[in-house]
């Protein structure tokens, strides 16, 4: 059984639907990426799953973690799940670190809360965690304040705090976006290593397919509040099928060639208040036909590879796939 099972998750704010029925499974120890441009619904998916959206949000569907249903569950049940089994890290460490408290103390508090550790044992474990995430001279630097560390080190400290509860699932929401490329690569290496060593499952949210591939086994590509393609990372890389996924690949910065973005996708993600009638990506898609503008493709299982929602998927080398997902009428 999947450790996390999301079914038909929908979210609306003030009557505007922003998530349109997300299905996603994550097995124990698996790392799954959620990829897509800003505004596609990556963060809202997890904030909804963990009961962290503002009260005005209307959430429906099902989110089970280790068999426990969280949508509609009592607040205490959701809070217990969040504290004990699931940890989150965000783009901006300063949102999670207290600027006026020594970092070691902050980790100790987390250890006391989640694992009941106190005194010297808690202190020793805090130092071990700082060491584990690569803070040099952890025993002495545990007594410093957050502003005495670099941005990358603060991100490492936040990861140490997240690990303090020994989570079964770590949700990392754009954890490297604010960092420069070298530090970003180090943090990605760290997350991949921690996942191997601890066996925890991970959700890695990013607009950057390259970053996702460094950490994840599988990824779901989101567009305008829906999953449009999901597959193993190796298959997504070797043969992306949805034109949007192909566009994300083309937009990965080619650092070796010393260039920035290669070929950004033209246009912008549609406003959830004014979604196109047919495929939401059609206005930006050079494969779109009249049919695509009038009909919305469902996410459907495929004979080979993961599910896909496209009437005109791309095959290897840009050639059309032999069997379209749904033969346009
Ligand atoms: N509290 C809120 N109230 C109203 N609309 C919201 C709220 N939070 C998110 N949204 C809307 O929900 C949609 C999905 O947002 P979400 O933050 O999940 O996107 P994202 O893919 O994670 O993008 P980013 O990478 O910028 O975080 C967007 O249209 C956003 O404006």
TrEMBL record:
GO terms for molecular function: ATP binding. Pfam families: ABC_tran (PF00005), oligo_HPY (PF08352). Residues 4-249 form the ABC transporter domain. It is found in: Cell inner membrane. Its main location: membrane. It is a peripheral membrane protein. InterPro entries: AAA+_ATPase, ABC_Ni/Peptide_Import, ABC_transporter-like_ATP-bd, ABC_transporter-like_CS, Oligopep_ABC_C, P-loop_NTPase. Keywords: ATP-binding, Cell membrane, Membrane, Nucleotide-binding, Transport. PROSITE patterns: ABC_TRANSPORTER_1, ABC_TRANSPORTER_2. The keyword NAD does not apply. NCBIfam families: oligo_HPY. Belongs to the ABC transporter superfamily. This is ABC transporter ATP-binding protein. It comes from Ruixingdingia sedimenti.
